[in-house]
Batch of 3 targets.
Target 1
Amino acid sequence: MRLTQEQEELRSAVRALLTQHHHYSAWAPLTTQIGAAGLAVPGEYGGAGGGARDVHVLMEELGRSLSPLPCLGSSVLTVGALLATGDREACGRLLPGLAAGTSVGTLAWAEQGSWDPEAIRTEAVPSFGGGHLITGAKEYVLDRPGGVDVLLVAARTAHGVSLFEVAPDAAGVRCEPVVTMDETRAQARWLLDGAEGRPLGVAGDGGRHLEHVRDLACTALAAEQVGAAERCLELTVEHARNRVQFGRPIGSFQAVKHRLADAYVLVESARSAALGAAFAADEDPVALPRAAAVAKSVCSEAFSAVAGEMIQLHGGIGITWEHDAHRYFKRAHGAGELFGPPARHRARLAAGLGLTTH
């Protein structure tokens, strides 16, 4: 599994921009100069017409820098959900802005601590005019300071789970920012009380669409975790070379070498799993659910382990605000739970193989 020369050039361009611009100031140059927000958007809707491997490159670089940019929520979840519905009117109206980065979207989906469609209890009942009135609460919604422009909501109807477009400022809609351990990834809780929603695609197909979007999201998040874990390892190796104890760099001690070597194996194993999911998304959709579950499980645990080693091998400075180690550790914890913890995805794998877990 190898990336193309164009994708490696994309990596270099993204890394250069993220180095020059910090935090949310990078959004404008990334979207206007590189088209980062529209990598997975078909050309007919103003995007680059790329695939999961292009998104993989972008997410790896965003992970390295712990970027707070809304690519995961907008460019992966929202774009993926719109395309999955096959609603050409909504795609033609919403995707050009999302691809250009002039609008930012999010998908309000999780309930009761779960991203499984079966857990959705938010209800949508028909209203006059062909719309629906939606009532319920959505958790762990990826957000950004200043809010979002496009809000998609998963709700249960008489036909099953369906997707709806809801105006973020509509009557009966309220957004509550939540305090998260990982301050670099904004999240919110959305409350809907009889909010007007426009149905997207075929009624009752939302559960199937959400399962596909979850696989795309896990694939993109796995790439982000690989990029962040790789950066943790780089910083730790640099520290081991420069930190002197007993008259020699601590990296020269065999015990430290072994721990760094183990961390390297974890990073490279995670990279293989993440790339495997990206290749499956582009070339073998039937294999994507399994590949995405593997990637989410492997990359979550690898990132957590490497971030933990980063703190351990940095010593006291690793738990201070002056060093980024604690930020990577918090991102690892938050990303590990997002879209379901590793155990949940291993259970998916076991179910697909006809096995049971305890």
Note: The first strand starts at residue 105 and ends at 108.
Target 2
Amino acid sequence: MGLFYSLRGFFRSPGAPPRDAGIQSGQPGGYSSESAAEVTFDSAMQISPVWAAVKLISETIGSMPFNIYEVGPEGRKIATAHPLHRVLTRKPNQYQTDVEFWESMALNLAISGNAYAIIQRLGNEIVGLLPVSSSQVETTLLNDGTVVHAYTTGANVKVYGPQSMWHVKLFGNGIVGLSPLSYARNSIGIAIAADNRVSRVYSNGAKPSGVLTIDKTLTEAQRAQVRASFAGLEAGNDDRLFVLEAGMQYQQISMTPQDIQLLDSRRFQIEDIGRFFGVPSILLNQTFGQSSLGSNVYEILAAFYKLNLRPYLEKFEASVPRWLMEADEAGRYECEFDFDAALLRADLQTRMQANREAINSGQLTPNEARIDEGRPALPGGDKLLIQGAMIPIENAGLKPVQEVPSGTQESEPR
């Protein structure tokens, strides 16, 4: 497969990923150089910036409330009666909660650029969505334009059409998304090689290799004895004092971690890998230097949402009506992750000030503000108010009624 894509890429003109009939791939057609280390899902996830970036994207999406809204003449309301609402917000399948379901989908999307879920139906109604590993799915474009997905489990292969397999993808050729893990292979490979080097250095007591020189010719037996006696100079964690005699000299020949700037290289890999996954290095616990997104945590989260996380959310939000709903109902429903409530929630003082302004300007009722803060509604708090006398908005402009004291009689006008 790799050789085929390399040859195809050689004879093709540069451009976007091709969309020919046949098996679709989100991997590069070829690599400009060999990777410093083998990169697989398991080896990549052992690199801390990869783990942190994928975990941040997956768990953040999984933690956000998701709702399906029905749009009508009076606005929109949560469509609790729609069968998909139960599946996507409470019980997606027999194995997962809704949080775990969205985490699984986001994990596959962030790693491979494609997320798949088997659609479980009872009649024409969707009753479950079961995520599967994208590494077990092979997407094929048939000559008639149909897209099918072959799911491999052990020796069994099942083929699903679009009505039976939900497919969410990142940018690519329109059939499959490009794989961030595959395109970041060289950067991740360098990080893996650096980690391996650090492990070898510290398992060896951080001792560099070298040459032991002696000013006379030794026999085979003497050479073996010298190797055995002074092997600890370059190997092992033995820190005892060695005594060199008879003109022996030890010369270091390997580079130290300082010589190859190992620490700086590992620090740069955090930033480089973060770019592939769209995660600012400051959110990967990279504390070296200054954040270019702003020193305020709220500003950093807002920038991460707008520039990096929002495209992931849009993929899911647009895909649900397109692939999981009938054509006649897709226009009546909207899907949305509530990011503002989940991540961009301001501090208490800022929220109180915003609620006060919204209530005084007639944009929120007191009960709506209370519910947003997790407090119960109160009697009389469902009316919109305006600033001033704080009267119901429908009474604004009416002349107030003056009460007449009992026992008196108003004089007739002259």
Note: The longest strand covers residues 114-122.
Target 3
Amino acid sequence: MAVVFAYVTTPSEAEAARIGRALVEERLAACVNILPGMRSIYRWQGRVEEAAEAVLIAKTRADRFTDLSARVRALHPYELPCITALRVEAGDAGYLDWIRHESLALSSPG
């Protein structure tokens, strides 16, 4: 199973932490990194905007990305959040196995 890094921008480090914790607790991601202090310049609704943001990088299985993306949208305050998947082409085998295992959906009991 392929591994992806989900790249998500958020309006603050606190929002990134709130969303990231939910993703890990719900096993949608094995790990989340939060990079505060990003500055974004972008075009939105016909105007050039600038804002401070934080980046959230969630490490997950490729087959979990759709669910992860839906959950981020549900938790995210932006009307149109940046949620993209970057496929991991290579990496330490043990680390990638850990991501696969920790982001595996658990079966419900019974």
Note: The chain has one domain: 3-100.
